[in-house]
Task: structure prediction
Amino acid sequence: MVLTNSTDSQTIPFDLSAYLLERKKQVEAALEQAIAVVYPERIYESMRYSLMAGGKRLRPILCLATAELAGGTAEIAMPTACALEMIHTMSLIHDDLPAMDNDDFRRGQPTNHKVYGEDIAILAGDGLLAYAFEFIAVQTQQVPAERVLRVIAHLGRAAGAAGLVGGQAVDLESEGKSEVGVETLNFIHRHKTAALLEASVVSGAVLAGAEQADIERLSRYAQHIGLAFQIVDDVLDITSTPEALGKSTGKDVQAQKVTYPSIWGIEESKRQAHQLVEAAKQELRSFGDSRRPLAAIADYITARTH
Amino acid sequence: MVLTNSTDSQTIPFDLSAYLLERKKQVEAALEQAIAVVYPERIYESMRYSLMAGGKRLRPILCLATAELAGGTAEIAMPTACALEMIHTMSLIHDDLPAMDNDDFRRGQPTNHKVYGEDIAILAGDGLLAYAFEFIAVQTQQVPAERVLRVIAHLGRAAGAAGLVGGQAVDLESEGKSEVGVETLNFIHRHKTAALLEASVVSGAVLAGAEQADIERLSRYAQHIGLAFQIVDDVLDITSTPEALGKSTGKDVQAQKVTYPSIWGIEESKRQAHQLVEAAKQELRSFGDSRRPLAAIADYITARTH
Result:
């Protein structure tokens, strides 16, 4: 896939597929090293089962790309990139539990609690969340400690009640309610999806020592693509197949969930996602050629079919 | 209660009851301020419900006492003290879940999931765990960032698979098994109980800038009292009443759990706990008068009846 940047007259060709593949490999090699299986093996195996179950590794890749954009290296950001994937995986394991969304499959594989039982699945999520912070604190090299603390604070906020947890709480509360409006829906997805994507981008920038104005631009970029990502996800739940998505489809309709397509319709949802992606790319204008990965990732969100 | 220190000829009178009461008030005032209830209220209320449900606040108090012992102030350690209680509370909420120990009461009150439902209880635990790290990173004042990072690393380790999570995993796995030996039992309690007590003590020392040799002494002190604490807990489960303990008793026998009294008998268990407390106090010898709170807390463990 070769995408061109459409926000200005200058065309910047960029091979996103190759970039994502290469970066995914790097991230998975680092994740592979991150958790050793020791006694009691079952809990470490359960943590690894979900952590190594594939996925696009979008959050780590955004973190690495932003660190480079802001003048740092991928190396200084890799521990935080891994921690972001641990936090994301924790939220998937817990959201899939019978007491929550009760999902049996994730990325085409049985969910954690289907393999290890509910008790171990709850503990595996807790273990990944705690380890994420330990991992950043212990593994980050060649970054002033003040910046690392700022990253930990930002990720803690994105993972907790002001982020993932708060979004999931409102999502659960809204299920089966037909009067859910677009503001509630935005709240859910700003917290369930956008908050951790935003933390991925901002943490890369903070580690690299970006200036506050640039951090704010990158934060807005990430919030826009986060919401666009969720709108496209809602659309794909209707228009795609389980085979293409690697997870069950039509779930939202079945659960009587209010979604962007259920409020706006499919075409308007796509238009809104496209607009958000354009706004996201506008925020990148001042960064020159080094913005290419982030710009291409924004385009990829509306282009993706699974 | 006025306890005297029995490890050396010099008698150090110390009013532990007054000390614990005063410190508990300080900690609860700080915890009260730590979490504001905002939208979505239910998740914050659930987090506060368990966080403010009482308890001895032993972990925060150990952290504050050790910070002072090591030449620091209670102020520099208060955010970490609060975070320790958040992590402890998270582990109680999740351990009480139906998929784990399935407890309906805790400290005489209905457990979190009985009040808020399983879904919110899981999320409240996640929220407290994530917030603990954010809270330390954002709130700690007048401590070099390197020390704060070291504290975060230590607490992450104590909360995760190398600590609480690993201990609970082995505990669940051992339930109903009659062949559990004292080594497995030690593993469970070194991880479920002692690890976070140890982190409480070590984090106070690290924040205050203690030397490595002193940190190691204090670490051993905490590991000894952690194990002693659990032995006494096992004994009290047999010898105390639900009214005195504020939680159900006889649970271990009912669940066919192997405990220290079931291996050693009640008298030998008490003797072992006493020996551990003496060993703990030995580690404090070099600290002079400032060791009094920690020494008295060690004595209190074997003296307590609930």
